[in-house]
Amino acid sequence: MTEPQTPRVAVVTGAGSGIGRAVARLMLAEGWSVALAGRREAPLKETAAGHPEALVVPCDVTLPDGVTHLFEETRRRWGRVDVLFNNAGIFGPSGSVDEMDLAGWENTLAINVTGAMLCAAEAVRTMKAQEPQGGRIINNGSISAHSPRPLSVAYTVSKHAISGLTKSVELDGRPFGISCGQIDIGNTRTEIMDTIGVGSGALQADGSRRVEPMFPVEDAARAVLLMAGMPPSANVGSLLVTAAGMPFIGRG
C-alpha cells in the first residue's frame, strides 16, 4: 500500500491580487496546502475560491502580532510551514530623493522591508521548531533590486534591502535546513504595471516614455513554484524573470 504523502504547506503573503494570487492558486492546483495572507479578507476569499486546502488569514504584515497570528493559524491547521512566499509589497510614491515625502518613504519600507523581515522571522522560528526541521523562504524582489526605474527611490531601496535579507536568511538558516532564495520579476502583467504606465508608456532614463512588453502573471507563478518545489538538497538562490524584450539589459 502506498504511504499517504505529507501535505506541503505554504504561506503566501499578498495573496489577494497579482503575483501572490497567481502563486497561491497554482500551488493549490498542484496539491499544496496554502495559507493566504493579505490586508483585505474579500480578495483573499476570491483567491481561495472555496478550495478545501486554502486558509484565509487577513494580516497586515507591518504588525508583529498580525504576522504571529498568521503563522499560529497555519500551524494550528497543518502543524508546519514548508515554504514562505514573502510577496506582500507596494510600489510606493514616485519621486527622486529630494522630492520624497517622508510618510510615503516610511510606509514603503514598512511594508516592503519590515513586513518581509517579520514574516521571515516567524517562518524561521516555525521551521526551526518543526519535525522534520527546515523549510524554504522565497522573497519577491524585483528587477529594481538590480537596476532602478526613474523616480522610484523608495521602491528601489526597499528591493535592494530584500537582497540583503535574502542572503542573511540563507546564511543563518543553513544549520537548520532552512534555505532562502529571491525571485526578481520584471513586467509581469499585474495591477502595479498600470501604476507605472508600462502598458501606456513608462518613464525611461532619457525622459521619454515607452510602452514596454509584459508577460502573463501565471508564468511568473510557475517560476516561483519551480523554486518552491526544489528538494531540500538544492536551492535557487536567485532567479531573474522578465518579459522578453523589456528594457532591462541596457537600462539607464
UniProtKB/TrEMBL annotation:
UniProt keyword annotation of Oxidoreductase present: yes
Family assignment from sequence similarity: Belongs to the short-chain dehydrogenases/reductases (SDR) family.
Classification via InterPro entries: KR_dom, NAD(P)-bd_dom_sf, SDR_fam
UniProt-listed SUPFAM superfamilies: NAD(P)-binding Rossmann-fold domains
Xref: SMART domains: PKS_KR
PANTHER family for this protein: 5-KETO-D-GLUCONATE 5-REDUCTASE (PTHR43669), BLR5618 PROTEIN (PTHR43669:SF12)
Span of domain Ketoreductase: 8-186
Protein name: NADP-dependent 3-hydroxy acid dehydrogenase YdfG
Classification of source organism: Bacteria, Bacillati, Actinomycetota, Actinomycetes, Micrococcales
Gene source species: Arthrobacter cupressi
Example GO molecular function: oxidoreductase activity
Pfam families reported in the protein's UniProt record: adh_short
Keywords on record: Oxidoreductase
